From TrEMBL:
<keyword id="KW-0119">Carbohydrate metabolism</keyword>
<feature type="active site" description="Nucleophile">
    <location>
        <position position="375"/>
    </location>
</feature>
<feature type="binding site">
    <location>
        <position position="17"/>
    </location>
    <ligand>
        <name>substrate</name>
    </ligand>
</feature>
<keyword id="KW-0136">Cellulose degradation</keyword>
<keyword id="KW-0326">Glycosidase</keyword>
<dbReference type="GO" id="GO:0008422">
    <property type="term" value="F:beta-glucosidase activity"/>
</dbReference>
<dbReference type="InterPro" id="IPR017853">
    <property type="entry name" value="GH"/>
</dbReference>
<feature type="active site" description="Proton donor">
    <location>
        <position position="163"/>
    </location>
</feature>
<feature type="binding site">
    <location>
        <begin position="429"/>
        <end position="430"/>
    </location>
    <ligand>
        <name>substrate</name>
    </ligand>
</feature>
<keyword id="KW-0378">Hydrolase</keyword>
<feature type="binding site">
    <location>
        <position position="422"/>
    </location>
    <ligand>
        <name>substrate</name>
    </ligand>
</feature>
<feature type="binding site">
    <location>
        <position position="301"/>
    </location>
    <ligand>
        <name>substrate</name>
    </ligand>
</feature>
<feature type="binding site">
    <location>
        <position position="118"/>
    </location>
    <ligand>
        <name>substrate</name>
    </ligand>
</feature>
<dbReference type="Pfam" id="PF00232">
    <property type="entry name" value="Glyco_hydro_1"/>
</dbReference>
<dbReference type="GO" id="GO:0030245">
    <property type="term" value="P:cellulose catabolic process"/>
</dbReference>
<dbReference type="InterPro" id="IPR017736">
    <property type="entry name" value="Glyco_hydro_1_beta-glucosidase"/>
</dbReference>
<dbReference type="InterPro" id="IPR018120">
    <property type="entry name" value="Glyco_hydro_1_AS"/>
</dbReference>
């Protein structure tokens, strides 16, 4: 199985998950520093220290990318390194770090794909209201302009926001993520201001225009990254089909429709009428949000099945309802099925057909934009074996299945232009701390030693050749 020669192969990370050095060079405090320091929020009491200490070891990590033959690297910029308080002029030392990283990547022949927001909001902006406050969207656009001014002569591709659904609904409705607020109505205001922030940032980046003086002239490409998810009815009943429509609404269409059609879906607004009147939407906002995307990034891990008749389903088959508000605002009576077997060590269902289904659905319902799989991967709690290697056949198999599913979507006509594995390195997996390991490179958090896993070698061969290599034991 072979991919087009210009298909982009990459690996992804995020600043808070790998950098460590949370107090270096004037970095401000982010909501994830605060959240992780609050007892009971992150498994094992883990924090952003030491992570993979990438802030000091970035050159080694770029060398690993290069040695594996991976030509694209998606990473995120830590807003609190660039604006420690979330406002004001850029912090030179923080900007210098990303400057060095971008130069190191380009010198290695690797395309940089920075994401502006991967969840580390400066704490002072949360104290002023966070994403439910409109001002945060305006501050985000200023930050985007500062980052682009410094890096835009070399960076051609920008992702604005990573997974606004997770930010809004896990951060502000269920409280599973920072800042840990449990306010379903605030999650909807946050949703709108994240979308507005995306639109304003895209305009700021494009407004600074084509680079004519930099080392890499060209027009910047701007996209957003969504963790859109295929939502399947458990069975064929009207109740299950309607539940799937409602969950698809708050999980997927509440982001996709403003981006592509300049409006929030009528059925979603009706379903949410008891929660919010959407008064946060002002004239002109939806025009800003709907400026055409240069690409859409999609993070895919699992599909979900839902039921509108939860009372009639064996409780063993359902995800237990948590003790706080649901992540699926407005769908509180919907039952979410536990992922079927097989599952990863994190208990996430493995079903690569969902990725094909999702890419094709986007190609049909939201046509006209190049698609990139900006994250896909699996957590297995691998260890370094006595022979010094990390044997992770289940991760290699997961990646093999999902790469093939991506190829199937491409063959069927979806405009898929690239694939990024999550993640380059084992890292801080948010509320799970360091207990989950998504890397194709193992990190020993005591010594900071990196070990390329078997899946990393397999992925490197794929990235270098564009042809899917055989899995170990199957040649
Ligand atoms: C994504 N959920 O996060 C993120 O973009 C990464 O930073 C993260 O490490 C990766 O997926 C693996 O989790 C998610 O609970 C975290 O639905 C949680 C959820 C979804 C995505």
């Amino acid at each position: 199985m072979r991919f087009p020669a210009d298909f982009a192969w990459g690996a992804a990370t995020a600043a808070f998950q790998i950098e460590g050095a949370t107090r270096a060079d004037g970095r401000g405090v982010s909501i994830w520093d605060t959240f992780a320091a609050t007892p009971g929020r992150v498994l094992g009491g883990d924090t952003g220290e030491p992570a993979a200490n990438h802030y000091r070891r970035y050159a080694e990590d770029v060398a690993l990318l290069r040695s594996l033959g991976i030509g694209n690297y998606r990473f995120s910029l830590a807003w609190p390194r660039i604006q420690p308080d979330g406002t004001g002029p850029g912090n030179p030392a923080g900007l210098d770090f990303y400057d060095r990283l971008v130069d190191e990547l380009l010198a290695a022949g690797i395309e940089p794909w920075p994401t502006l927001y991967h969840w580390d909001l400066p704490q002072p902006l949360e104290d002023a209201g966070g994403w439910p406050a409109r001002d945060t969207a305006l501050r985000f656009a200023e930050y985007a302009a500062i980052a682009h001014r410094r890096l835009g002569d070399r960076v051609r591709t920008w992702c604005t926001i990573n997974e606004p659904w997770v930010v809004a609904f896990l951060g502000y409705a269920s409280g599973e993520h920072a800042p840990g607020r449990r306010e379903p109505a605030s999650a909807l205001a946050a949703t709108h201001h994240l979308m507005l922030g995306h639109g304003l940032a895209a305009a700021a980046i494009r407004g600074q225009g084509a680079t004519t003086t930099g080392t890499r002239p060209g027009t910047p490409a701007v996209g957003i990254v969504l963790n859109a998810q295929p939502i399947r009815p458990h069975e064929g009943s009207v109740a299950d089909l309607d539940a799937a429509r409602r969950v698809d609404g708050v999980r997927n269409r509440i982001f996709l429709d403003p981006l592509y059609h300049g409006r929030y879906p009528d059925d979603v607004r009706a379903d949410l009428a008891d929660v919010s009147d959407f008064a946060f939407v002002r004239d002109g906002d939806l025009t800003t949000i709907a400026a055409p995307l240069d690409f859409l990034g999609i993070n895919y891990y699992s599909p979900a099945s839902v039921t509108g008749a939860a009372g009639k389903v064996d409780p063993e088959l359902l995800e237990p309802a948590g003790d706080g508000p649901s992540r699926l605002v407005g769908c509180e009576d919907v039952g979410v099925l536990r992922g079927a077997e097989p599952r990863t060590d994190q208990d996430w269902e493995i079903d690569a057909t969902g990725l094909t289904e999702l890419l094709l659905r986007l190609a049909v319902d939201y046509p006209g934009t190049p698609l990139y799989v900006t994250e896909n991967g699996a957590s297995y709690r691998d260890e370094v074996a006595d022979d010094g290697a990390v044997h992770d056949p289940r991760r290699a198999s997961y990646l093999d299945q999902h790469v093939r599913a991506t190829h199937a979507a491409l063959t069927a006509g979806a405009p898929v232009k690239g694939y990024f594995v999550w993640s380059l390195l084992d890292n801080f997996e948010w509320a799970y701390g360091y207990s989950e390991r998504f890397g194709i490179i193992h990190v020993d958090y005591d010594t900071q030693r990196r070990t390329v896993k078997d899946s990393g070698r397999w992925y490197g061969r794929l990235a270098a050749t564009g042809a899917v290599p055989p899995l170990a034991g199957s040649d």
